Amino acid sequence: GTLRVGKDKVSWQELECYLFAEMLICVKEKKLPPQAVTQWDDDGAPRKTTRCTLKGSILIKKHLNEVSETGTIDENVLTLSLSVAELPQFHLRFDNRNQ
Prior knowledge:
By secondary structure, the protein is mostly beta strands. 4% of the residues lie in helices and 58% in strands.
């Protein structure tokens, strides 16, 4: 789903995040202009064309050390502590606790 993510808790960006068995990936959806090549689905209807750019990935078994709830109770932030020198922490900010 769409989450606000960040390396620190100061600047956030909104990305689509997908959790798989062994990996968390974050992508940015690029909307293509209407004049882009039209694709058709199996029923002959025009298909909405979008492309995604991979913004980051975390190998859960290899990189993830700990998950903790951080921030105030209203912030709904999970912090991933990672074993990667370039990114020691990665924050996921949810709209609500049920997301």
